[in-house]
Amino acid sequence: MNTFGNNFRLSIYGESHGPVTGIVLDGVRPGLELREDSFTEDLGRRRPGAEGTTARVEPDPVKILSGVYRGRTTGAPLCIEIPNLDVCSAPYEGISQHPRPGHADLTAALKFGGFNDPRGGGHFSGRLSAALVAAAVVAKKMLPGYAFEAKVVEVGGLKENWGPAIEAARSEGDSLGGIVECRVKGVPAGLGEPFWDSVESLVAHAVFAIPGVRGIEFGDGFAAAAKKGSEHNDIIGPDGRVQSNHAGGINGGISNGQDLLFRVAFKPASSIAKAGIPGRHDACFVLRTPVIVEAAAAIVFAGLQK
Amino acid sequence: MNTFGNNFRLSIYGESHGPVTGIVLDGVRPGLELREDSFTEDLGRRRPGAEGTTARVEPDPVKILSGVYRGRTTGAPLCIEIPNLDVCSAPYEGISQHPRPGHADLTAALKFGGFNDPRGGGHFSGRLSAALVAAAVVAKKMLPGYAFEAKVVEVGGLKENWGPAIEAARSEGDSLGGIVECRVKGVPAGLGEPFWDSVESLVAHAVFAIPGVRGIEFGDGFAAAAKKGSEHNDIIGPDGRVQSNHAGGINGGISNGQDLLFRVAFKPASSIAKAGIPGRHDACFVLRTPVIVEAAAAIVFAGLQK
Amino acid sequence: MNTFGNNFRLSIYGESHGPVTGIVLDGVRPGLELREDSFTEDLGRRRPGAEGTTARVEPDPVKILSGVYRGRTTGAPLCIEIPNLDVCSAPYEGISQHPRPGHADLTAALKFGGFNDPRGGGHFSGRLSAALVAAAVVAKKMLPGYAFEAKVVEVGGLKENWGPAIEAARSEGDSLGGIVECRVKGVPAGLGEPFWDSVESLVAHAVFAIPGVRGIEFGDGFAAAAKKGSEHNDIIGPDGRVQSNHAGGINGGISNGQDLLFRVAFKPASSIAKAGIPGRHDACFVLRTPVIVEAAAAIVFAGLQK
Amino acid sequence: MNTFGNNFRLSIYGESHGPVTGIVLDGVRPGLELREDSFTEDLGRRRPGAEGTTARVEPDPVKILSGVYRGRTTGAPLCIEIPNLDVCSAPYEGISQHPRPGHADLTAALKFGGFNDPRGGGHFSGRLSAALVAAAVVAKKMLPGYAFEAKVVEVGGLKENWGPAIEAARSEGDSLGGIVECRVKGVPAGLGEPFWDSVESLVAHAVFAIPGVRGIEFGDGFAAAAKKGSEHNDIIGPDGRVQSNHAGGINGGISNGQDLLFRVAFKPASSIAKAGIPGRHDACFVLRTPVIVEAAAAIVFAGLQK
C-alpha cells in the first residue's frame, strides 16, 4: 500500500501530471513551528538546476492544508500539497502503446489493468519524492538532536570530478548512475526491533521507495562479505561504547550509539534521448537525491521516537 | 515490532536458550497439505554440519500446534514450534558484564533496560531464522508456480573454491563473510505497490531481519551505479515482454515478469575464538543462509498473492 | 491513528475551520467510473436543511486530486478534498478558555498539550464525516451487488412523528438524540475474521469514529440479552441457508449470507443555546447521520472484498 | 486477521480441540514480574463451575514459552500457551454435515472452503478467550494505576436474583443471555485518537472479538438517544474537570479523566440441549465473561500507553 509507518505514518498521493503531489502525516508531535517556507531549503536541494539535471522548472510552493494552527503543529494529521505548476503532457502521448524501458509504464499497466495514468509516469513518477522530502522536513523537526548528512560519493564509477563525464553522457543523449552516502548523527542507542523491524529493515524499506534505487548497504556493506570477523567486529570499549563503525551503527537491528551509515546505489536514468524516449531528462538525477535519501532515514527515525 | 506482513502475517517468538522458537502464521491458504515432516528438507539446509558451520546439533523436530486439521491447513492461524533441544547456557554466563562485539548483547541491554535474556543472544539469536525457514515452507506451498533458488556465490572475497579459506579461518579462530544470490522464478508481472511497498522494499525489509546482513542489491545492483542508461535499460520486445534483466525483475516497484534477482551480503560471524568470545562458532555461517534468504523472499510473495 | 483499514485504507485530514477536509483512499479498484458530481447525492443526504438541522451552508463541491484519469479510477491513491466554504470562526473565540461540555475541546487540549486547533472543534469536528461519506461513494462503487439502507428509527425516544418534539427542543434551545438502523443487503457469506477482525469488530470500529455515537448493536442486540437461546438462535434450513436474522447476519464474526443489520445510538447534540454555547447548532443532527452510518459499513466491506 | 494492536500487539492461535490455545504478545514492557501462577486468578474467574456454567474442566495450567527471564519480562515477544487438557471430540462428529445454529460451523466452512477444524468450534471456540484473559494479565501489569471492574448486571432480563431463572433454563435444556458492565478506573485523560482510533472504536473492536457479544454502549448508551442535550451533557467544573459521566469517560474519542464506563450485551448460548445440539453446554455463559470484558479493555489501554 501507499502508506508507511506506524507511529509516524505517511500516506502519499498524486501523479506527475495531475494537479498536485501530496502527503498526509499522522503522528506529528504537537507544538513544532512550521510555516510554508520551512520546506524551501530541502525542496530546493531536490530541485533540478545543477549540471546534469532536468530542465523542468519546479518552484515547489508548498501548501499546508491541515494540522497547523497559529504557526505550530497541532498533533492532528498534517496534509502538505505541492501543486504541479509546470506540466507538459504532450511528449507522453503514446506511452500506453510504447512503454518506456526501465520505467513503470509496462508494469503499471499490468498491475492496474491499463487504467493507470501514464503521463510522466503518473503515480510512479520521481516527482512524488518531493512529497517525501516535504514530510521529512517535519520529521527532522521531531528529531532535534539528529543531523542528516547525505552526499553523492560516486557518479558513473568516478569517485570525484564527475562533471565532464556527466556532460559527455548528456551530449550523447545518455545518462549516468551513482552512489549516495548518508550519515545520521545523533541517533540514540536502543532504537529498532529485534526481528522484522530492525533499523536496517526500516531504512531499506523506505529507501527502496525512492525511484531508481538498486541497492543499499550499511557500514562496511558488501565489502564486509570479503572480510574476516577479526577485521569487521566493532570493539566495545571499557566505557561500554562501540569504538568503531564497521556495522554502520546497528547491532542486532538496534542502534548502538554510533552514527548510522549507509550507501545507496542509484541506476542511471532510464529516460535517454539516445533511445528516442520523449520528455525532459536528467543526465544524472543522482545529484538530486541526497536530500531524498536523508528524507527516507528521517521518516524512519521519527517513527522510532518514544 | 516482531510481526511482518499484512495479508500473510508472521509473528515470531522465542529465545536461543528458551524452551522453543516459534512462529504464528496468519493468512494461510486453507487446504494445503502440511505435515510435521514437511519442514525437514528446508530446515536441514539451514542446519549446521557443512564445513565451516557450528557444532550445535539442531535436529529441529517441528510441532504444528494449530491451523492444521486432518493433514491440511484450515485457514486459521498456524503455529509452528521448534523445541530447543541442545541448549548449553554455561558459556554465556557473564555476557551482561562483557557484551560481545558485533552482537546485540549491548544494544539489547540498552533497548530493554537490561532485562533482556542474554543467553546465546536471546531473542536476537540467529536461531530464530529456523522459524523463518519453517514459515516459508508454508509460504512456498502457497506459491506453486514459483521456484526459489538461492546459493552462495562468494566467500571471503573468493568466487569459488573457498573451502581452504574457511578451513584456514577456522584454524586461526576467525570467520569469513560471503554473498548469497537469490533467483525467484515464476513471479507473475504486476505484483508490488508503487511507492512504499515496492517489491524491493518488501524483500529488503524481510532480508534485513536475517541476522548478519550488511547489504542487498537487485539486478545490476551497485554495479548499475557505474553504468550508462543505454547499458542498464531492459528493452521491451514487440511482444510486450521485458527482454533482459538488469533491473532484477522489477520496474517502478512492480514485478515485470522476469525472474526476481538479488544478492545479499553477509558479514563474517562476530563470535570468534580469536577474540576470546565464548560459545560454539560458525567459521562461515553464510553457508547456511541460502535457504533463509529464500524464506525472506517467499514470505513476501505469499503476502502479495491475491 | 487517523488511518483505517488494510486493503482499503483511508487517511483523513482537515479541520472544521481550515481550508479543506480531505481523505486519501488506497486500494481503490481500478476502472471505476468516478466524476466530481458522483459525490453529490450522498453528500446531499448529509447536508443540513432538514428540520432540526444546522443553518451552516455546505455545498460540498468535491475535488478529486489524484487517482482518477479520463473519468476512471487508476488504482493509485485517490485524494478527495472538500473545501470549507462557509467558515465563521468568530463565535469560537474563547473556546480554549471555556471548553464546551460534551465536546472534545477539553480532551483535545489535554491530548495535544494545548496546540490543537479549537475553532469549531478543529480536527474533531463532525465536519470530517463529509470526507467519510465521500470515501464511501467510492467504496460503494467497489460493491456493486450491495445495497446500503440506513434510516432514523427513533428520535428523542419517539418511534414516529418526532417533528414536533424536535421543534420543541429547538425552541427551548435544546437538542434530541436518536437511533439509526442500517441494513446492508447483498453481503456474501464468508467475510470477516474469526477473532479480532470479526465483521462486528470492524463495523463497530468504523461506526464509533462517527462523532456522537454512544452505542451499537447487531441483530437482536441488547434485547438478545433478555432472550432464551431457543428464541434467539437462527435456524439453518435444509438448503444450508440461515433462515432468520436474530444475529444480524453474522456468526462467529463471519457473514452468514443474511442482511447485515445493526442499530446505532446517537447522543443529543452537545452544543445547545440553552447552555450558552456559541456557534450554529443542530437541534437533531441524527437526521443527517444515516448516510454516514452507511459509509462506515461500506468502507468496512470494501476492505473485505477479495 | 487474527492480530490486534500496534504498540501492544497480540497474535492468537489454537483450536478448541487442538493441543493448545496460545497468544503472542509484542510490545510488553520489560521488567514486569511474571510467573506461571500470575495467571491463576484471572483464568479462574473465567473457568466454569458457577451455577449455570459448563461442566468442562479447565485447570488452565499456563506455560510461558518466551519473553520472560529470571521471572521478569524481557521486552521480547512473550508467548503464553494453555494446553487443552480435557478434550472430548466425540460429540462433535457430524458437525460438518449438521452445522449448529448460532455457531460459526456454517460460516467457518463457507469462509475456509470446508477445511476448518469443526471440533468444538475449532478456532472460533469461546475457548480462545482464555488466551485473551492471559494476555490481559500482562496488560494489567503494564497499567499499575488502573482498576478494571466488570460484573454481570442483568441475566435473562432480570437485574437481580437470576439464579432461579438460570436453573429453570437449564432444566428446560435452554440458555439465557445477559449484560456485563465494565468500569475502568484510573484512565488518564488524553488517550485515544480523534478519528478512527477513538477509545470507543478500539474498545468496541476488542469487545466484539469475544464470542457471543451482540452490542456495546458507553456511558448513557442507547438511553442517550432518548435524552435531551441539557440532560446528557457532562458539565466541566471551574477546575477544568468533567463532573458527571453521561459520556462514559470519553469526549471526541479521547479519554476525559472520568472512569471509562461501558456495557456489553451477550446473547444466550447457542448450544442448547433442547435443540438437540451435542456437547457440554453453559446455561448462562455470561457469568464467566466479566473477566473477558475486562481483558478486552485492558489490552486496548496497554496499547495506548506512551
Across the major sheet of chain A, the strand order is: 1-2-3-7-4
Q: Looking at the chains present, what oligomeric state does this protein adopt?
A: homotetramer
Using only CA atoms, what is the Rg of chain A? 20 Å
Rounded to the nearest angstrom, the distance between the terminal CA atoms of chain A is: 25 Å
Low-confidence stretches of chain A: none
Query: What is the mean predicted local confidence, pLDDT of chain A?
Result: 93
Shape descriptor of chain A reads globular
Structural class of chain A: alpha+beta
Largest sheet of chain A: 5 strands, antiparallel
Number of domains of chain A: 1
Characterization of the model:
Four copies of one chain form a homotetramer. With 306 residues, chain A is of the alpha+beta class. Chain A has a single domain (3-304), classed as Chorismate synthase AroC (Chorismate synthase, AroC fold), CATH 3.60.150.10. Helix content of chain A is 21%, strand content 20%. The first copy, chain A, has seven helices and 13 strands. Chain A has a five-stranded antiparallel sheet, with helices on one face. The longest helix of chain A is centred in the last third of the chain and has 15 residues, at 290-304. Chain A is globular, with a radius of gyration of 20 Å. Chains in contact: A-B, A-C, A-D, B-C, B-D, C-D. At the A-B interface, strand 1, helix 2, helix 5, strand 10 and helix 6 of A face strand 1, helix 2, helix 5, strand 10 and helix 6 of B. Strand 10 (213-218) of chain C pairs antiparallel with strand 10 (213-218) of chain D.
